[in-house]
Design a protein that fits this description.
By secondary structure, the chain is of the alpha/beta class. It has two domains: about 20-210, Glycoside hydrolase/deacetylase (TIM Barrel, Alpha-Beta Barrel); about 220-370, 3-Layer(aba) Sandwich (Aminopeptidase), CATH 3.40.630. About 40% of the residues lie in helices and about 15% in strands. The chain has 15 helices and 14 strands. Helix 5 packs parallel to helix 6. This is Polysaccharide deacetylase familiy protein.
């Protein structure tokens, strides 16, 4: 009896790990090559649905609403209003009480009540039966790749800042129809994300694809990236869809350079791999050039920064942008090479070529960065007479 109970608990735990935390096989984001994003709202309709619709209408934005059956039946006029505004309506189950879903017959009834093509489980909860039931009912499991965290008692300003930091091309954003802070969050974030070049669309227009094991692993590791950014005070150089660098202020670990001794304050460059993972080589070159202008703007604002640098097996390619390379000691070289190969496989689905197998240090001095990529900010270095 105890063994059977243990196996059942293990099966439930593995199902939640694979299908909720990683999202394997779920529809959680679209193509990373286009600046389309899907805003999705759970738990409605609510007393704030009309205000939410007015806000979306004011900005010309379409969204997807995952409605619960009990609330939809209680407010049919709001369901009709959502559809009339051109938004997509999908299924969030019969109600929002997740505990009962641990019983298979309750979960089947819960999923079968509302007709829809997409189903989002309450809290994303998965049991061993969720996926088979969805397949039998002809529904796709819709999750997300960015939580707005609008259920937490945080200021709308802080939530909006976080959303804009982590929003990516193809993102499916989890929001809620109900909390007052969601409205304020969107009042702050919507104009900014539109100005950055993002285009909010319905889930159908986004055309998400089911997550492969590699894409599911990327989704599962996103929390580690956020914790690293907070702990090390990493900031993005530009918030646009294809601004490809995050920067971390650190002492330069490389060799002493003329006028720049070892330990000079520098910016370590971290590639925004999810933004670059589907770009063609020409697109990557173009966006890298534009992104380095944003890095230069940050450097121009901080007179302490002497140079920018990064570790990568692709460091020789940085010469195209003026970077110099330097060898690494054996142990750091081995660690950087393994990390570079891991990320190259994770985000590109392939291993580096033999000639790019070993990582090296790439760096660009402050003067050369500002000369090659003059930022269009008041902090830019003045141009010489006659210089374009």
């Amino acid at each position: 009896m105890e063994l059977a109970l243990g196996l059942i608990l293990l099966l439930y735990g593995l199902s939640d790990l694979l299908f909720r935390f990683l999202g394997l096989g779920a529809y959680a984001h679209g193509s990373r090559r286009e600046a389309k994003v899907a805003l999705t709202f759970d738990d409605g309709p609510s007393e704030r649905t009309e205000a939410l619709l007015a806000l979306l209408r004011r900005h010309g934005v379409k969204a997807t609403f995952f409605l619960t059956g009990e609330r939809a039946r209680a407010h049919p006029h709001l369901v009709e209003a959502i559809r009339k505004e051109g938004h997509q309506v999908e299924d969030h189950g019969a109600y929002h009480r997740a505990l009962g879903l641990l019983l298979p017959w309750v979960e089947w009834w819960h999923m079968a009540q509302n007709p829809a093509r997409y189903y989002r489980p309450p809290h994303g909860l998965h049991t061993p039966f969720t996926r088979p039931f969805a397949r039998a009912l002809g529904k796709r499991i819709a999750l997300w790749d960015l939580e707005s965290k609008d259920w937490l008692p945080l200021s709308p300003e802080a939530l909006a800042e976080r959303l804009l930091y982590y929003l990516r091309p193809g993102s499916v954003v989890l929001l809620h129809d109900g909390p007052e802070r969601t409205l304020r969050l969107l009042e702050i974030a919507l104009p900014k994300l539109l100005a950055l070049g993002y285009r909010p669309v319905t889930l159908d227009e986004l055309k998400p694809l089911p997550l492969t094991p590699r894409l599911a692993l990327i989704r599962g590791l996103q929390g580690l990236e956020e914790r690293y950014n907070l702990r090390h005070r990493v900031e993005r150089a530009g918030l646009g869809p294809f601004d490809l660098f995050r920067v971390e202020k650190k002492p330069f670990p490389g060799p002493s350079l003329p006028g720049l001794p070892k330990g000079t304050p520098a910016l370590e460059l971290h590639l925004e791999s999810q933004r670059a993972m589907e770009l063609t080589p020409l697109e990557a070159i173009r966006h890298t050039r534009e992104s380095l202008k944003k890095v230069a703007a940050l450097v121009a604002q901080d007179p302490e920064i002497g140079l920018v640098y990064g570790y990568s097996s692709l460091a020789p390619g940085g010469r195209l942008f003026g970077f110099q390379t330097a060898p690494l000691p054996l142990l750091p070289r081995l660690v950087a090479s393994l990390a570079s190969a891991w990320f190259y496989w994770l985000y590109r689905g392939e291993l580096p070529k033999r000639e790019n197998l070993w990582a090296s240090l790439a760096y660009l001095t402050r003067e050369e960065l500002l000369r090659r990529f003059p930022p269009s900010t008041p902090a830019s270095l003045p141009l010489e007479p006659g210089e374009r």
